[in-house]
Here is the input.
Amino acid sequence: MYSASAAAGAGNTVSSSRVFRYEVVGLRQNDENDKASYPIRQSGSVFLTVPYNRMNEMMRRITRMGGKIVGIQPLKAASQQAGDAASTQPSSVHGTGATGATAVTTETTQHEQPAKETKPVTQAKEKRTDIPINLYRPNDPFVGKCLSNEELVQEGGIGTVRHLTFDLSAGNLRYLEGQSIGIIPPGIDEKGKPQKLRLYSIASTRHGDHVDDKTVSLCVRQLEYKSPQTGEMVNGVCSTYLCGLEPGADIKITGPVGKEMLLPEDPTVNVIMLATGTGIAPFRAYLWRMFKEAHEDYQFKGLAWLIFGIPTTPNILYKQELEELQAKYPDNLRLTYAISREQQNTEGGRMYIQHRVAEHADELWKLIQDEKTHTYICGLKGMEDGIDEALSTAAAKDEVTWADYQKQLKKAERWHVETY
Here is the structure.
């Protein structure tokens, strides 16, 4: 991974309209002197005014001329930029400034090609005010009823994952796609206190699976893990409770919570979804809203691309529904699987989601640069580094530092992550 330099850090949170002042030492004197093998002259500093979208190019030129960047300062206004340029920057790439160091401007010479430019990241839009948050709290939860509890893992698959639907008609619990609810399991913990709530991503649209605004659904995996103290297998408290819940049983619900994973209101956006396992939950909600429900106020027209990592084919959660939607909307929905125990990556190892991202990295990078594209990651935290590595390679082809660009995406609220 790229280690951010002073130049990269200065550009992390600015738009392409900003400019910066570089302080540079050690530049060669000029082309003629270089031919005579004269020593590099370092008797002073040069101050260069550089637009944000030319920073990478300028860094390369300074390096070619033997220079070293010793300081970077953002310039706050165009008028300040003009004044600084007039007072500190000579006008020619081959001239020498008052300090004796070679001057460099931001203009390319006739022998150089400008660096490839990427589309600037636009800033976040106005904050939404319609987001329901904590309508029900742990000290006063909503008591709903379980309507259904269905197995999602097909025969021959690994583990247990359940799709549960709860009745909300007796209360005022409403939510948006991408939010979570809390579940309070019954009983007491090892300290004799009531069980604490666990958060689960909502797997249904705001209208619910019955499209009547009266239900909410979850996608829950039966958690099993080895106790570090005893070495015995232990079942997760809340996941065991939910996976065994009978229809008609009461359940305590809190929330909703969460703003990070909200689906944009604009139906013309592109949505990249990277999921592992039950991380499919919010993406099911997105896709059902985009393609399965008919709304006069929301008719999706962009591209939705789901890259889904699972261990075996029987573990592809909601497989039939996903593939039916893709067949019905081939121009708007793209579906890519990474099946780790059945497929191999290019190195002969297991196929994980980061390998699929690497396969399609150039295409994903191009799509991510579109200001209408939002990227969502949900599932196991371990996939993040591999995804970043793949996109770093693709971005580097355009001479862009992915780590910096990603920070701009986050600030513009176009990069969304919910991992565990």
Observations:
- The longest helix spans residues 383-396.
- Confidence is low (pLDDT under 50) at residues 1-16, 29-43, 76-115.
- Residues 324 and 330 are 10 Å apart (CA to CA).
- The chain is about 25% helix and 25% strand.
